[in-house]
Amino acid sequence: xSGVVGADARPIRLRKVTRRYGDLVVLDRFDLELDxxxxxxxxxxxxxxxxxxxxLVLGLDAPDGGTVDGVDGRSLAAIFQENRLCEHLSAADNxxxxxxxxxxxxxxxHLRGAGLPGDALDRPVRTLSGGQRRRVAxxxxxxxxxxxxVMDEPFSGIDTRSKARLIDYVRxxxxxxxxxxxxxxxxxxxxxxxxxxxxGRVTKPGRTA
Length: 209
What we know:
By secondary structure, this protein is α/β, with parallel strands linked by helices. It has 2 domains: 1-75 and 145-209, Rossmann fold (3-Layer(aba) Sandwich); 86-142, no CATH class. The protein contains 6 helices and 8 strands, in the order E-E-E-H-E-E-H-H-H-E-H-E-H-E. The chain has helices at residues 50-58, 91-96, 104-113, 130-142, 160-174, 186-191; strands at 13-21, 24-33, 39-43, 65-69, 76-79, 148-152, 178-183, 195-198. Helix 4 packs parallel to helix 5 (160-174). The radius of gyration is 17 Å and the shape is globular.
């Protein structure tokens, strides 16, 4: 699904959201509103509920209490912690899956812009390095025109030297879009000029995450 959300679209809000996994309360009456047209970063320790928030916004999980509003009618894209690529397809063909009638030059520009070398464009992604596969996953998510982008630890597996260039590519692709960034790295949040929301650690059932 693609398209641009009109100016009258409702803001994306989690209101008094509770999410449990068995006896463990990961989110307890949690509130969050995403800033329209910019990046909101959610930070916290492992187990604090960051990925749960991403899944709730994407509609992959449902709250046990509270509501998630403003997502219906929006076009969505996601960068998951797992690459979720079609391993038998080339890098270029993975990107073509999300682009209607894309010519090769356009696909190549996207992949080269993210730092993928030319000799990796047409090889099955199963033969690429972990960092190269990660670049393909990022490009595939951002090459389309989705107006809401959810990124869960998008730069995992990317070496420090390459990360700056890749962040610049992602920033350019996100311009004007609403985005949720899940990260443990405050430097990443600053590079995006993101508003930061910090979560606490879940220590026992009933505590807020």
